[in-house]
Write a structure and sequence with these properties.
Order of helices and strands: HHHHHHHHHHHH
CATH superfamily of the largest domain: Hypothetical protein, domain 2
Radius of gyration: 19 Å
Helix content: 55-70%
Number of helices: 12
CATH topology of the largest domain: Endonuclease III, domain 1
Largest sheet: none
Strand content: under 5%
Structural class: mainly alpha
Number of domains: 2
CATH class of the largest domain: Mainly Alpha
Distance between the termini: 21 Å
Number of strands: 0
Length: 218
């Protein structure tokens, strides 16, 4: 049975990933906290590449919550229809814009719990916003972070909430936000869902998945 990873080993893993992905950062395009909030709502179950294609024009035409509220749900849906679940996301975005105008003077709240009261904003989205827009240490657990951290052994949990707790315990707080990006980069580029590229991965000496499966799962 594989032993639980220590904080020292976790730091070594992150240092390797830092060497591998020195420029790891958010891959959604945004210029302010409002754009990041909207882009992150759109990104659920959709690639960042597709979101960036849509927001390139969307953010040129609509820059504030008030701008978005000039649209009906159907009109906004047409503008984002290439994104998965665009009808639901359209309604969530407009409902969020209403709350931003009425309750927050059209500004995105910096508090995670307040962000989570907005329609379409769960803990992952809130963590992305507080981390990337406001510099608050946070680990947003998306599908890549969940998969990679549990494969390597940084976490050992069956759901995203417990995975986040595991990562917060084993990773120094000043590295939470960077670790989020490093794990996403590794998940997208090497530790892929169906065919992880284990033969090229520099983490095999640490990785629980590799130790348990070896070359059979390469």
């Amino acid at each position: 049975m594989t032993k639980k990873m220590t904080k020292k080993k976790a730091k070594e893993v992150l240092n390797i990933l830092l060497d591998l992905y020195p420029d790891a950062k958010a891959e959604l395009n945004f210029e302010n906290s409002f754009e990041l909030l909207i882009a992150t709502i759109l990104s659920a179950q959709t690639t960042d590449i597709q979101v960036n294609k849509v927001t390139a024009k969307l953010f040129r035409d609509f820059k504030t919550p008030e701008d978005f509220l000039k649209l009906s749900a159907e009109e906004l849906g047409e503008r984002i229809r290439t994104i998965g679940f665009y009808n639901n996301k359209s309604r969530h975005i407009l409902a969020t814009c209403i709350l931003l105008v009425e309750k927050y003077d059209s500004k995105v709240p910096e508090d995670r719990d307040e962000l989570m009261t907005l329609p379409g904003v769960g803990r992952k989205t809130a963590n992305v916003v507080v981390s990337n827009a406001f510099g608050t240490p946070a680990i947003a657990v998306d599908t890549h972070v969940f998969r990679v951290s549990n494969r390597i052994g940084l976490a050992n949990s069956k759901n995203v909430e417990d995975t986040e707790k595991d990562l917060m315990k084993i990773i120094d707080k000043n590295m939470w936000s960077k670790a989020h990006h490093l794990l996403i980069f590794h998940g997208r580029r090497m530790c892929k869902s169906r065919r992880p590229i284990c033969e090229e991965c520099p983490l095999t000496d640490y990785c629980k998945y590799f130790k348990e499966n070896g070359s059979d799962k390469r």
